[in-house]
Amino acid sequence: MKVQIEDVTVYFPYDNIYPEQYAYMVELKRALDAKGHCLLEMPTGTGKTIALLSLITSYTLSKPQSPVKLIYCTRTVHEMEKTLAELKLLHNYQVKNLGLAARILAIGLSSRKNLCINQRVLAAENRDSVDAACRKLTASWVRSKAAENSNVRTCEFFENYERAASGALLPPGVYTLQDLREFGKQNGWCPYFLSRHMVQFANVVVYNYQYLLDPKVAGIISKEMQKESVVVFDEAHNIDNVCIEALSVSVRRQTLDGASRNLTRMQQEIERFKATDASRLRAEYNRLVEGLALRGDLPASDSWLANPALPDDILKEAVPGNIRRAEHFLHVLHRLVHYLKGRLDTENVEKESPVSFVASVNSHAGIDQKTLKFCYDRLHSLMLTLEITDTDEFLHIQTICDFATLVGTYARGFSIIIEPFDERMPHIPDPVLQLSCHDASLAIKPVIDRFQSVVITSGTLSPIDLYPRLLNFHPVVSRSFTMSLTRDCICPMVLTRGSDQLPVSTKFDMRSDPGVARNYGKLLVEMVSVVPDGIVCFFVSYSYMDDIINHWNQHDILKEIMQHKLVFIETQDVVETTLALDNYRKACDCGRGAVFFSVARGKVAEGIDFDQHYGRLVIMFGVPFQYTLSKILLARLEYLRDTFQIKEGDFLTFDALRQAAQCVGRVIRSKADYGMMIFADKRYSRHDKRSKLPSWILSHLRDAHLNLSTDMALYIAREFLRKMAQPYDKTGGSGGRKTLLSQEDLEKMGDNILQGMVY
C-alpha cells in the first residue's frame, strides 16, 4: 500500500498497516525534516523495523536532490539478517511500483568469521583466530613473497578480488550475509573485502553497534560515511552500557604474562631484522621522525584495529622521540608491564583517577603522559614493520597499549579500580585492574555530532526522559507509543505474596528465606498445571537461580513441575544453552510443554523470542538490580550523580526495570499472539518502581492485578486463557477501534490516528 505523509509517499509492502506504525512514521519524518535526533519507544511485535525502513527509503526516493544514506545498527547477526530480509521484501515492492528508479544497494557487514568463504581460514575456532588466519594469506608482505616464491600460500578469493580492481562491484540489490557469500563464490571474489569496499557506495548499510560506537572498529569501517546519513540504533535500551564497554579495559595477571611473552617475541623479531633487513627499521624510524600519518595509505588487508581513543582526542603530531626506535619502545612497554604487575600485587581495593595514575606511572616507571598516549599507534606501526600476521597471539600486548592510550588521553569520566579478588569469592585470588568508563556520552558524542539524524528506538525505553541525560544530547522528537489491540492479549500481574500470605521478594534480607523459595516453587507448580505449552522463568542472577533450583530439588518441587512439563536451564556456556533452547522448542512443538529457566541480563533475555506457543507465560522472579556492591557500579553512580544530577536510586531502579521489561517482552511478538506476565516481587506494587515499566505494559496492568497472592493469580490465569481461546476479529472491524488499517481507512481517519497512539 502507499501511505501519504505530508509531502512523502511511503511505499509500505503490506496491504494493511497498524495505527502505531503510521504514528511512528509521522514522528520519524518530523525528526528527519528537522535534521535532528529522536527517541522512539514502540511496543514489541508491532512492525517497528518495516515502518522504519519504509519511511526512510521512501523519504530518500521523494527527495532525490538530497539523498540520505541509512546506517542501521543491530546488536546481533540474527537481528541483522532479519532486518535485511524485511528490506528485501520492501525493495521488491518499491521496484515493482516505481521501476528501476527505486533500485538501491543495501548490504550487511560483519566480521571475517561470518563472511569468509576460504575453508582453510574458517577452520580456526574463534573470531580473532579467523582474522589472524586471513592476514597470514592476505597481508601485503605475504603477497610480495608469494610473487617470488610459488610455495607461499595466499588466498585465491582475495587475489581474484584484487585482480578485478575497480571492476569488483556489487550490482544494485539487497544482500544478506548469505547472499554476499554466494556472490563471492560465484565470482571467486572475497565477500569480506568486497563488502567493506562497497560500504561507501551503498544506500543502506546494516551492521553491529560496535562498528560505529567502538573507536577501534569505527576508525577503520565508518570513517568514510557521509554526514547526510540517518543512523538507527535498533533495540537500543542498553545503548549506554555498549558505549561504556567500548571505552573500558580490564587487565589481569594472565594479560600481563601474555604481554611479557609478546615483548620477548618482538625483541627476537627486531634482532632478526637487524641482522637481515636493518633498512626496514631505519625507514620506520625516519617515517616517525617526520610524523607521517600511518592510516591513510595502508592496504585494506593490512589495516588493523584503529586507535582506541575517540577521533577528536587523537594527537595530530609526531611520535615522541623516546619511543621512535623499536628497541626503546619495547623498553618502555617492559617498564609499563612491570609497573602494572606491581600494582596488581595488592591486598586492598584501590580506586584512583587517571590523572593520579598517570602521575604514579611517571614517578615509578619514568613514562610520561604523552608517551602513554602514543603507545597504541606506535605498537601498530611496529607490528607492520615486523610483518607480524598472527595478531591473535598479540592480543595481550594490544590490551596493554589500549589501556595506556586511554589512560593517557582522558582525565574525566574514567576511574582506575584495582580489586585483589571477586567479592563474591574472596578465597580465590584473582586480581584485576580495570580502566572503567563512567560516561556513556563520550562514545556516542562523535556519532551525534557527525550525522544528520540519529534514531534511538526500542520496545523498552522507559522512562524515556532519562536517555537524553545519560547520553547528553537533545532529541527533537521523543515519543512513547501504545499498542492498539482488538482484544486484551497481554495480561500483566504483580504477585506480592504466596498462598500462605507470606510476602515474596528477592530483597537481600529475604533472599535466603526458605518461605520465599517455597512460595516461588508453589507458584510455578500451580501455573504449569493450567498454562499450556511453554513457560519462561527469569531469575535475578545465576547464583540465585542455582540456589532456588537446589532448594526446589531437595523439597521435591522440581519433581512436581516435571510431572506437567519438561525443565530446561540456561547456563553460562553458549553451546549448552543453544542445545537447551532447541530441545525446549521441540518439547513445546510436540505438545509435551516445557519450562525454561533463564537469567535477566543473560543471552536469552536479550535476543531470543518466545513467540506463539513457545511462551504463554513469563514469570520474573524478583527485581533484577545490578550487584550494588560492585566497585565499578559505585564509581559510575557517583559520576552520574555529580555530573548529570541523576540520583543513585533512580538509575538503579531504571536499570532494573528496563531489564525486567526486556525479559517479559519476550512473550509477545505479534498482535495475534497472547501471553501473561507475572512480576513476582512485592516491590513491583510500589508506584515508584512500577511506573518505570514501558507504557504498553502499564496500559494493560489493572489496579485489581497489583497485589495478588498465588491463588488469585491462578484464577486470573484460568480466566485469561479461557478468553484467549475464543475466536476474534483480527482487524477490529466489529465495534471498537480498528487495529488493521487499509488505504481507505487511512484517508478517512486522517490526523485522528495520532490521537491515542502516543502515550
UniProtKB/TrEMBL annotation:
The keyword Iron applies. Its cofactor is [4Fe-4S] cluster. The keyword Nucleotide-binding applies. One of its GO terms (molecular function) is 4 iron, 4 sulfur cluster binding. Residues 7-285 form the Helicase ATP-binding domain. Belongs to the helicase family. RAD3/XPD subfamily. This is DNA 5'-3' helicase. It comes from Rhizophora mucronata.
